[in-house]
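Severity: low
Component: inverse-folding endpoint
Summary: output formatting inconsistent between runs
Steps to reproduce: submit the following structure tokens with default settings.
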């Protein structure tokens, strides 16, 4: 396994916790990304995402967006991924993630593109578009969020209001 979860709050077998987190990520296609910058203040946006076996999340954004400008200033971000509950306040499933985030370059861009195309097969199939993402030549770029800590709630699997926190070890 490329990463391990060191559970810092809550009690659950680490492998079951890992499966729960990855299940939530697999069932949702959109994350909410939160960034902040000294001149632009806090900001949240939605982005389609992909992830890899090392718990790195990838998204695509234009460099001119507020969150991309924030990440160029400060490479820290938080994100949430959640699944709509069937009934208000019941059967909650989601994960809150924090870590370092930046534009992907070189091998990181290749990994980002592979993960993104694995999840969205029609993405960047045109060779020119693919090359723009790999070389950073276009207005849009591939970004990566390397998760360092997370909090998950998965009531169907972990019980009601059982928030589990973990540090990601690589």
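Observed output (run 2 of 3):
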């Amino acid at each position: 396994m490329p990463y391990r979860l060191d559970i810092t709050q809550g009690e659950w077998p680490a492998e079951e916790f890992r499966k729960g987190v990855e299940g939530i990520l697999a069932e949702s296609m959109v994350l909410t990304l939160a960034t902040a910058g000294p001149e632009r203040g806090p900001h949240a946006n939605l982005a389609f995402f992909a992830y890899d076996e090392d718990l790195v999340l990838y998204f695509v954004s234009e460099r001119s967006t507020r969150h991309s400008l924030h990440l160029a200033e400060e490479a820290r971000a938080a994100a949430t991924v959640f699944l709509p509950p069937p009934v208000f306040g019941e059967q909650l499933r989601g994960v809150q993630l924090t870590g370092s985030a930046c534009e992907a370059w070189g091998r990181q861009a290749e990994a980002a593109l592979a993960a993104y195309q694995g999840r969205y097969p029609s993405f960047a199939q045109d060779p020119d578009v693919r090359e723009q993402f790999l070389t950073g030549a276009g207005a849009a770029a591939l970004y990566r969020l390397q998760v360092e800590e997370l909090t998950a709630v998965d009531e169907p699997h972990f019980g009601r209001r059982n928030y589990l926190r973990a540090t990601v070890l690589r």
